[in-house]
Design goal:
Order of helices and strands: EHEHHEHHEHEH
Mean pLDDT: 91
Protein name: Nicotinamide-nucleotide adenylyltransferase, NadR type
Low-confidence stretches: none
CATH class: Alpha Beta
CATH topology: Rossmann fold
Distance between the termini: 21 Å
Largest sheet: 5 strands, parallel
GO molecular function, one term: nucleotidyltransferase activity
Strand content: 5-15%
Keywords: Nucleotidyltransferase, Transferase
Number of helices: 7
Helix content: 40-55%
Length: 188
């Protein structure tokens, strides 16, 4: 792992624009972004099991392979980044959802969350329109989930900045937050 690389997690409940913002920030700052492993894992798993329903099914047995996959994906990209890397979620998300849906988590997961270090979290507000997809299932619980995500950041004593706004405003708010936090010049 390159210790010089600043690590920023795009964080928050489902359908808050994390993937879009991670991609946009990577383009803006001319760097890499790390996709969410869980999305690819569950899509492939359900496809292989012959499920083509409107809703993709996840079980407690999926939590560990999803978390291990997230770690592997992050580690594979960190060495390639220079200066800055953006993550479309991280292990803390796996821990939050495991506890929320199953009221339990793999014993090693909390320690792994603590051991993985990130410089900044951008906590996305639920002020964007809900977009349904097969992995999303709780449009009515967005505020509740946002509170869980925020409380997890506070509990784990993480640096975070809340990001609001729609479209270009949301991107510019995130760019400004990253620039200000890391004291980056306009050309970076």
């Amino acid at each position: 792992m390159n210790e010089i690389v600043k690590k920023v997690v795009i964080f928050g409940p489902e359908s808050t624009g994390k993937t879009t913002l991670a991609k946009q920030l990577a383009i803006y700052f001319h760097t890499l972004w790390c996709p969410e492993f869980t999305r690819a894992y569950l899509t492939m798993k359900n496809h292989l099991e012959g499920r083509y329903a409107k809703h993709i099914v996840s079980t407690y047995a999926d939590i560990e392979p999803m978390a291990i996959g997230q770690i592997a994906l992050e580690d594979s990209l960190e060495g390639q980044a220079q200066n800055l890397i953006f993550y479309d979620t991280n292990l803390l998300t796996n821990l939050i959802y495991s506890n929320y849906y199953f009221q339990k988590h793999p014993a090693w997961l909390p320690r792994a969350v603590v051991n993985r270090k990130y410089d900044l979290y951008l906590l996305l507000d639920v002020d964007v329109v809900w977009e349904a997809d097969p992995l999303r299932d709780r449009p009515y619980a967005r505020s509740e989930m946002h509170a869980l995500f925020k409380n997890a950041l506070i509990h784990h004593q993480q640096n975070f900045i809340e990001i609001r706004g729609l479209g270009e405003d949301r991107l510019q708010n995130a760019v400004r937050a990253v620039r200000d936090f890391f004291k980056l010049k306009e050309t970076q």
